[in-house]
Specification:
The chain is built from one helix and four strands; from the N terminus they run αββββ. With 74 residues, it is mainly beta. It has one domain. Bound molecules: zinc ion. Zinc ion binds next to α1.
Length: 74
């Protein structure tokens, strides 16, 4: 089941940014165990719109970005 969200402004801005960018203030870090390898990626949930981000911390530099996992597609 997919629950698509409509990203709020700060989430839309963060989407696609390098992983070095800081999370915006409505994002909360999901608890340890949310991902298999916390050194490779961190997951955040937005309290405002319910968006779930993966902050990719490992791999090729071009892949280390903020990815929105449940954004609606048009
Ligand atoms: Zn949001």
């Amino acid at each position: 089941m997919h629950l698509w969200i409509q990203p709020c402004g700060p989430c839309a801005d963060l989407y696609g940014q390098p992983a070095t960018a800081e999370p915006h203030e409505a994002l909360t870090l999901n608890g340890a165990g949310a991902v298999k390898d916390a050194r490779a990626e961190a997951h955040y949930t937005c309290l405002q719109c319910g968006g779930v981000f993966a902050r990719i911390l490992a791999g090729p530099p071009g892949r280390q970005t903020w990815m929105l996992l449940n954004a609606g597609q048009h």
